[in-house]
Amino acid sequence: MLKRWLPLLLPCTLLLLLCGCWNRVEMNEIGIVSATAVDWIDDKWVVSYQLVIPQAISSQSGSSPRGEAPVNVFSSEGSSMRKAIGDASKEMSRKLYFSHNQIVVVSESAARKGISTILEIYMRNADARETVSMFITKGRAREMLEQLLPIEKIPGNAIQRLIENEAKTNSLYPDMTIYRVLLDLLGPEQATGIPELMIAGSRQPLNSMEALKRTSNQAKIRLGDLAIISGDQLKGWLSQTEAAGLVWLSDNVNQMTLSFDCLGSAQEENTSAARVVHASVTRKPELLPDGRVKMRIEVKAKGTLLEYACSDKKIAPTMLQKMEWQIAEEIKGEMEQSWKALQRLKTDIVGFGTTVYRHNPKRWKAMHEEWNENLDDVVLDVKVKFSLSRVGFSDRNFKEVQESL
Amino acid sequence: MFFFGKGKRRTNPFAQDKQSSQEAAFSPSLKTNLDAIKRLLRGSSDLTIRPLRSPLAPDVVMTVVYVTKLIDEATLNEHVLRPLMTSPIEAEERSDPLVRLIGERVIEVGSAAIARSPQSSASKLLDGYCLLLIQEAACGLLVDISARESRAVSEPSAETVVRGPQISFNESIHTNINLLRHIIRSPNLHVEELEVGSETRTRLALLYLNGVAATETVDTVRGRIQAIEIASVLESGYIEALIQDKGYTPFPTMMNTERPDAIAGGLLEGQIAIIVDGSPFVLLAPVTLFQLFQSPEDYYNRFDISTFLRLIRFVSFLISMTLPALYIAVTTFHQEMLPTTLLITLAAQREGIPFPGLVEALLMELTFEVLREAGVRMPRAIGPAISIVGALVLGQAAVEAGIVSAGMVIIVSFTAICNFVIPQLNVAIAARLIRFSFMLLAGVFGLMGIIAGVLAVMIHLVRLESFGVPYMSPLAPFHWAGLKDTLIRAPLQKLIGREPRNVFTRNRKS
Q1: Which of B342, B344, B346, B437 best tests the A interface by mutation, with the highest count of A CBs <10 A?
Q2: Which is the most buried residue in A228, B57, B251, B403, by most CB within 10 A?
Q3: ipTM above 0.85, yes or no
């Protein structure tokens, strides 16, 4: 039997060798990119890469000397982005590996030029993941990649976790992955908001391991304003206070902590705090006879009292209702403030257009061209209902207890 | 020691003489008969011929012939020679032939029979019988006084259980049948004795439960055994190789075990056991793949524990086949599948490793196979030395020297341990062989190659049959009731009283 099969089997085995192991690449032949940055400098794309140095990160000591920086940042430039990435091989001994890229930081100049180039790459290529989180920065994007973060080993990874954590526990900014950016920009409004990444504190950069040896750092990477993109270009910025109501308007609330005034507000403002644990937002567009659109937004939220700094004798049930109203007013105020800011920038990043489109596709067809321009005409009708489900273990504030003794 | 000549081509002493002398019967002449026996046994020096005269017939010369080393001297003296020489029987019953008289009234041994020809007597002499020849009588008397050297029944060494009988078969076919008869005390247990091997004339017993085992399977097994032409059979492995279904497969289509309870369980389910003299490993056929993953202990433990353990075994089997291949595929083709942190940890380990992943894995796997073989083959006394060299020098030092990565050592060790979980050694070996081809496929095509390999193995398994029983049953062909005792082990109440499980008992072709 062997004699019959051998002449057949042998060429088949040799054929296997012919394919040259297809697209095999060993792990020590790839340069793992954890973050990329895109700058637009002198009419050229400058792409920067944050390359992970595995030996410096792995706990396995031995081959690597201690204190080596865990990442290395370098850039390459070109008239197109993919060409720039291709040219990276001129200065890199390893094949750049983008599948584990976590964030992409775009500089303001590049964002004003237009992010369509970046999105085009992500839509086209298999090695570029759409789960990458996107950020805009006001300075040079490359600088963001050079910063180290305390505790975390891979900065790119850490920044993504930062935005995920923020989106989950405070929901001020959503985690804008490329996928979501694509969804927004290809949606009816063609607008989106992308968080800003900035270096706070002194501009003394955190770009060496020496800087991490101290217990506190002068500079720190943090989330800043919200960049508003319309079409594919940067339209403007919303400050954090202006952006605060966006989560409510766009129905993206997970959990968040709110501060609110005391009743009568004779004292200093926003001294008490409550945590929103559950919220539901219903958004209903209504076409008014004069052709304008009225957005009815109903918010129902539940929360717990975290901190109470008002000088009332005791939290009575009647006061609870007033407190709830106070918080609801606070939310309402935030929403209106944000809405005004959006109207100023003439960009609908909260998805009102989508609701109109779903409500009445025909009318939307007629108005969608002018939608962002005519945002001023949209009437906002906000109703907020907040209920406190718990006030905690104490029914008055500490100072009151002390004085009542 | 091992010769596998085809039996019929070699000279069979008894067969040849039979042909030349045309079924020669004993002649009335004692001398002729003795000469015939001597000639048949080639004048072997351990053939003893003891002439004697008995008070039964003082004037007749009798001779007791036996092969010295095969008989029990005490039995010969006490129960054959002494009664013959001191028999009180008077000569008034001389009307009966003397041979029959001695056989019926003198010899005090269980088995005594008239022998008609020197040929049959000579072969019996080699089985430990003694032959009584009487002058003027054209027949002899064969008395079984055989003595066998055999090991005492001991604990099973290859298949241990925590709970359950701690007894195993030994090399004697008599002991083994004895052990089984003690477990199944039913008259339905049928024992068929056969003989295989023209030189070794190995005793072989076919056991099955009448009314439970499918008759045509029994006929198939018997037919295949009878068709064997071989000079020697030294272990049940010979029989397994010669009667298993045709076509190459790395998977065993018969099960072997040294545990009487496992064989008894098989017999009760309608399987057929083949005991080969000289081997403590008894064969069981037909089998399905799933049965090879069962340990007798599954039925002695609580069902939930047994189910858990069975699932562990199946998972281990899969791991032992595919884990190194998966590791190679994922780390050299599909790095994007790994979580970032894991990728970086693995990449850090791979820094400075000179070989590609496939070579590294093959190197470690081969090293381990060598270690394992050394562990089996070496004398017991050097055991600790091998484990120190194996564990410390090869494992730790290789990693520290940067020749293989720590991850690979973990993968290889875990694979090896998983392999040990499989109760049947020959399935474990099949998994080891397949693992290597999977590794090559993974090194060449990545996950694509593994999928192709797994598909090939699946197709092969589904096509396999063991004595007419589909190897993958009751999964393919699907048989719902059989699943209660396949991947899981249902509570005993659910298992008893159901229609006979399976596959083994059903008469298929009728």
Answers
A1: B344
A2: A228
A3: no
